[in-house]
Fold each of these.
Amino acid sequence: MTGSASHGVDELLSVAGIDPAAGVQVVSVGRLVTIAFDPSLPLILLADPAAPASAVLPGRHARSGPRAVLGSLYPNDHQLLELLHRAAHRLEDLDDAALAAASWLVPALDPVENIASPHGMAAISARLRAPDGCPWDQKQTHLSLRPYLLEEAYETIDAIEQGTPADLEEELGDLLLQVILHAQFAAEAGSFDLTDVYRSIGSKIIRRHPHVFGTVSVDGVDQVVSNWETIKADERAERGKAQEGAFAGVARALPALPGSREIQERASALGWDWDAIDGVWEKVAEEIEELREAATDEARLHELGDVLFAIVNLGRWMKLDPEEALRTANRRWVARYRAVEALADERGIDLAKLSLMEKDVLWNEVKAR
């Protein structure tokens, strides 16, 4: 920044009493909704009367305009200093027009109070692990948190399928906490930190979407998936892992159904697939017949696995998630059984004393409803 603009910023820093060497962010009000910034550092907003009143920050689709963006990160009673007149105003008393018409100092939040940004959560996790932090958090390791990572992932899925937006917001936060804690453990060991996690996933997504961030042209979703697998194979080769094969990246900890689907999705992307769904139906029928003819427990276990593998492939061809299908079937069965219990109770029937045929009558009545 040079010339009069630089001189103006220097004057604003002087009025605000900020030493830039200690860290400061300077941005036009008009750019506020399009950039990421850290509320734990002081923020100087430069007047921008031409700033659009309803610009939307990508990823903050509910935050329209600079006032809403600030309101999502700072408390309503946060004091902003209007630098020309050195007058303090609470954030809740300002609107987009007032912000755009003047230059402001937005004081930094304490890192632990900076709860509405990833920077704040990193500080919170470090505080939990400090010598005077939480005894439970101090004892945790990557291995000890494994059950919680799985639990939070499944609770997030449940919120997606059956919960409210508020439920999903909460569960995504719980899941994010697991990521932040694992990054904290790694930072303490000197391996990597949360910034490295952001950088890694950001670089990967850009690299694997050359049709968005590069010059590659694609014709539909199938080509996107095929390119993705090709790029992953190149990445494995660069890391010296090509000898591990195309399926080396399939997580061994995945439950069997999603693991099977991942294997078959990857095989399809590599060109190992049926020409049409008719072949899949025939394979399902073939595997069921082989299960019917299996003579030993070992053979039946083998053939049952083949049946399930073929069923997963059928679901993939139908664009259906077998894990979701089975969870839905489980919930439906339990709901029907509870309805049968309620119906039996309503009619004064002891369900435990009914024959299977009599239970089926109640079951079919509930099912028909």
Amino acid sequence: MENRAQLLANLFDKKTIEVLKKLLLKDGTFYLRDISRDTSVSLSTTFRIVQKLMGLGLVEKDQVEKFTIYKVKRDSAVFQDVYGLVFGKIDDPASQIRKAVSEMYPAAAYKIYKTDDKEGKIFVVSSHIKQSEIEDMVAGIVNITGKKPACMLVTPEFFENMQTMGLVNKDKLVKI
């Protein structure tokens, strides 16, 4: 972590890092004034930084009547790169869910599988975990990555039935 902080300090000035951190955690649209106020960076400097980020494809601008609003493009490849540089590598969604579940439940209370294909569907198999907990975990992933993983909570019996019916291919599952 210290090496990343030092690298950032050498690459960017403190104001740019503060604006980047605020923007990467921002959900939805924002105004320059809000970012400027929240980071204690002047409006003109915030404008300059956001313009550079627009040039990289990380931020997009929209004009609504006389107001200019901005939005971080969370689904862009540059978002993942910049987020990784500032905060560290983002684990894949299945690993994030596994980590969150393992902090709440003993290993015997669940199994997590991921399909071994480009879709990477995630199955959390448990009789103990609540649907609302999985939804909160998925919402956290969406907030960070801007992408909603295909995740489903099922009971062990239901998961077995899905496999028996051919809805889930046993050969394409990876235990996480």
Amino acid sequence: MNANSDEDYIDAKTDAIRAGMDGRLGAFEANVNGKFATLGATIAQARTEIKESAERMTSQMVKWMVGIFVATLTIFFSSMVFLLNTAIPKLQAQPVQTVQPIVIQLPPMPAAPVRP
């Protein structure tokens, strides 16, 4: 064989292998980029779902806390009213004793002399 023809043959084979590898690497890169895009969309969707779930949980928690607070206040005041009405003895209304009025009588005063 001839050196020039061998060199051309090797160059042609190398160029063919490079072209094939470039095509395969391009396809691989497109595949990976597609997967990353899909993964990014999935992560964004999961983030949105988690955020909505957390907001629902927060609203439910606030609703329950307010309900428990109102129920606690109701039970507290009801029990206080019950205890104050039943546990503490009420004072019996005592009949009012009428006191005889004190009458002070003064002796009649002499009339003042009339001056002319």
Amino acid sequence: MFLMEGCQSTTNLGTDAQRPYQWEELSHHPAWVWHRHRADSALVHVKLPAHEPLHLRESRDLPFRFSLVLDLVVATLDVPDTDSLRVGGGLRQYQFTWTGTADPERDALEATFSFPLAEGRYRITHTLRDVHRGAQVSGAVLLDGWSEDAPVRCLAFDMQTGEPAWGGQLVGGHAAGLLVPPDLAQQMWWHAAIGPVDSFPSAPFLDRKPAEMRFPDAVEQQLPLPVDPHAEGLPPGDWTGWSLLQWDNAPGVHQWTLQGSRRHVVLPARRAHFPRMRDLDEMIRATRYIATRDEYKAMRESRNPKDALDRFWLQFAENPEEARMLIRNYYGRIHEANVHFSGLREGWSTDRGLVYVVFGHPDRTRRDRFGETWIYGEEGDVNALIYRFSTRPSGDDFNVYELERYPGFRSPWEAMVSSWRRGRIRKR
């Protein structure tokens, strides 16, 4: 399993551990929010597209219904009265049934489940099963509910829709709120923000390290305001005694810090359609990996950028259908990179995103405590291409894997870019 540690972060995986980034191949695409709601319990909010579960009916007179089951396996890593990690200790399992009738007006299915959780640090493996379809999707999350200022004790949400921050991210431009538990409600909080980042990682054969991303010193302070637990627009839950921080969620990344604490609640403010890429300017920026410098400049400066982008892709294909196939593959990879590799930067503009977009899914992925190894080709073959990504502290970024660059990567990189430009890329 691929584990990500951070504020309300999770990774959705398929059942094949060797191909963990095949987002498009999954039968279901749930989003998750984990929240330590009380000292003795936690909540998990789940959302998935309404059309994905298979709807069946027992007879003509009965409505179509979906039937889902959520399985949680909670492994204790650390508890307050111990001095060392106990990986896999204190294993507990919970199962929840989630059913409902078909509703053509509904775009998404949402549910919230509560389960016991004492103070501590945990690894939670979650499996969402579609009973009718006979399919499932699994993943895991590290949940730190130990410290009194642990970020997972607060819940961020979109004040325009009332929905929690799915995948730890909010929609940029919408007013946002952070629900603060009663014991933290009388303390001052500090806010800092980073605007959207307009930079790219260097090619794998160039030894150029990007500058670390750090939040500026916080200049805005706010004391949480009491919450009316019966007010509309709040996420599901009992908010008696809780308080609220509010801010204008401008695009970029926002950080809230409890005064006197080193723990941060970090919340990216993404585009409404994220992780997909639909904005024309963004789509042009994303061509930087395979466009020449002159092509890229011409598209950015064109008076008709849509026509310029169309001509860029059409030059690599024999007909419009082949061009559409290239576009689907390229921006499909960007979508998956955004799902799995996003931190302070969007996933497609990270080192792993760079390699994933150009080379596609590796044939084998290996992970250890120090990072990831991606293998293209047969393992052990002298012609296999191997990329190593090392985890490292990088300012305030919470999801950084740095590519170990090497001059020998120039030839395979240029060959793969050339393949894109000849229209020879197929989905992998």
